[in-house]
Amino acid sequence: AQLVQSGGGLVQPGGSLRLSCVASGFAFGTYGMQWFRQSPGNVREQVATIGSDGRISHYADFAKGRFFISRDNAKNTVYLQMNRLTPEDTAVYYCKVVLMEWWGQGTQVTVSS
Question: Which of 32, 3, 7, 31 is nearest to 20 (CA)?
Answer without folding.
Answer: 7
